[in-house]
Amino acid sequence: MDTGSDLIWTTCCPCDNCSIQTPMFDPLQSSTNKSQSCFASSCKELPQYGCTSDQRCCFIYSYVDESFIEGILATETLLFDDGAGTIKFTGIVFGCVHRKLKFIKFSKDAEFSGKEEVQETPMAPGSTDYVLNLIGISIGNTRLNIQFGVAQMTPLLGDARSIVIDAGTMLTYLAKDVYDQVANAVANVINHECFYHLSKICCVTM
Q: What are the pLDDT digits (tens) for 146-170?
């Protein structure tokens, strides 16, 4: 799951370099699956796409960790159980992946049972990304006095409080003035002194 990506995809039969334990979707067994033409607008919106010999949309989709997938773009009808019944979404564009490299495999221990207590927060409107409005940061039990209005406005997000939830990014990025306050608060909590040197942070015991 990568919340920073616009492409929905799943592994399909056959799939090269895919774990044999990974559930495979067989498009030939679905009456609602339809491959997209390489001339379709949905295909042309992909960063890297091409045409197969039968004019289907093939694509390569890469990520910042240098992993990538290859597959065929298609549409499908998706069914979701909301607890009260089944919700049907038709014509959902997704990638039918037949090759993937360098992806993390998660064990059954990572599965969500649905019985845990879950807190929800609404997404900010007006973006294709998963955007939240950051209203505060706490270190331990202390709420930091951060003025988010000082943070630089961005053309992509607009609101200076906006943050993108990207499960495909290993680091959390903050505006420098916000980051400085967080780093100093962490240093105080762990009784360390922080020295900023270029792109590195060194903490030494006091």
A: 776 544 555 444 555 677 777 666 6
DSSP assignment of 37-85:
BTTSHHHHTSSSEEE-TTSBEEEEEE-TTS-EEEEEEEEEEEEEE-SSS
Q: What 3-state DSSP class applies to 161?
A: coil
Cis status of the peptide bond prior to 27, with omega within 30 of 0: no
- Parse the chain into domains and list their residue ranges: 9-105, 131-205
| Alpha carbons 103 and 100: distance in angstroms, whole number | 7
Taking the whole predicted model, whether its pTM rises above 0.85 is answered as no
Inform me whether the pLDDT recorded for 38 exceeds 60.
yes
Contact (Cβ atoms closer than 8 angstroms) between residue 10 and residue 96? yes
